[in-house]
Amino acid sequence: MYLAWENQTAIITGAASGLGLAIAGRLSERKVKLALFDKEEDKLRIAASQLKCETELFTLDITDENAVRMAVDKAAKRFGKIDILVNSAGITGETHIKSHEISTANLQMVLAVNFMGSFFTSKYALPYMLHNNYGRILHIASIAGKEGNAGMLPYSASKAAVIGMTKVQGKEYAETNITINALAPAVIRTALVDAMPEAQVKYMTDKIPMKRCGTLDEAADMACFIVSSQNSFSTGFTFDLSGGRATY
Asked: How far is it, in rounded angstroms, from Cα 243 to Cα 211?
């Protein structure tokens, strides 16, 4: 089943900036109808003004399950269906710090945003996809979820959980024409990365054989392929975007 882009609807979390906005821009160029989720209302409105398609904005905290449920239901009602879900919202939490020094509250917050937020959106989007016997879900993970970055326990653990969820969901819905995959970037220059200590960024970049950061354009282009109808035989898989760092 190959669907024309302009007939599809996508939910994108973390859509006000960074990778979420870059993916929204790429899908906008293809005339996909977009439901944009973010907690920063002003940034979300500015982002939406740059897009070239029909959009609906939802200001919410993705760690609030009831808020997510209502937003997904409203998006489905607004556009009639949900074809694509991209979970791009994420935070790094405390970095450049040893595990025994991390606060429990910070660890829980990172897990809530990066893992539980992605779980909640997929939990409530999947019934709509099942109803239409079609869907594409992309969870944004990280190379840190595969290999672990020293000094980044909350982030690495949360992204490992996202990869584990992707493997489970891919198997669970493999016979329903719904594919569920993850993307594992190494260092992509975003505001999230710019907020890290430079020593932490250098530690990560030094591990990349290409000796550079990835770009938002590279990440958005790969994401668009993963959520396309042409990508019909890959599910439960974590795609590499690491400049050669990933070894499996």
From this structure: 8
pLDDT of residue 44: 96
Asked if pLDDT for residue 198 goes beyond 90, the answer is no
Break the chain into its structural domains and give their ranges: 5-238
Its pTM surpasses 0.85? yes
Tell me if 229 sits within 8 A of 3, measured CB to CB. yes
**Least confident window among 31-45, 125-139, 233-247:** 233-247
- List Cβ neighbours of 200 (8 Å cut-off, separation of 6 or more): 95, 96, 149, 151, 152
Q: Is 128 annotated as catalytic?
A: no
From the candidates 124, 134, 155, 173, give the one annotated as an active-site residue.
155
CB-CB contact of 226 with 181 (8 Å): yes
* Stretch among 113-117, 186-190, 218-222 having the lowest mean pLDDT: 186-190
Higher-pLDDT residue of 197, 90 = 90
Other beta carbons within 10 angstroms of residue 74's beta carbon come to: 13
CATH topology of domain 5-238: Rossmann fold (3.40.50)
